User: What shape does this take?
Amino acid sequence: MKIPQGYKITQGTDAHVPLLAAIEVAAAGIFPSGSIPDHIRADVTPVGKLFEAVQKNLLWVALAQEASPVGYAFVQMVENVALLAQMDVLPGHMRKGIGTALVGQIAETLRVRNVPALYLTTFTHVPWNAPFYGKLGFAALGEADAPPFLHNILEEERHYGLTSRTGMRMLIGQAANCSCVS
Assistant: This one.
């Protein structure tokens, strides 16, 4: 896995958790006005979910040279597969390969744990979401291909005001073929 120069990807710790909300809010700020509901811009992942991810070794942070988090990702396990529940990078550190490195680390960890797939939901109406994940080896899932838990998540997101969403899946055994894992 290629990690951008000047950064490192590491397992998240309890000490990182209080610093992650600011990253999530800053990342939401890049969405153009009207592209996501206003209440989403200030919403953050509950710290309880992040602490739980730390305990299960399912939280990763991207650290800059000064050792402060500039990005993070966490996974939740659902039905013996993994869900990329959240991934954010500070806008000043975007487009440097941090998100790719985070997904690569997740895919490698899941491969070692014999987890068959990594799922996510993402926006289809902005140019940087679904296409980014597609380049990493995720494939958009149609209604017939999506497992029930993913249908439920997409339905919850619609009720929350998130539209133009799709479910995607990366088969972990195939992740070695994507640019995120070497």
About this structure: The chain is about 30% helix and 25% strand. Helices lie at 17-28, 38-42, 47-55, 98-112, 130-135, 148-159. The CA atoms of residues 52 and 58 lie 8 Å apart. The two ends are 5 Å apart (CA to CA).
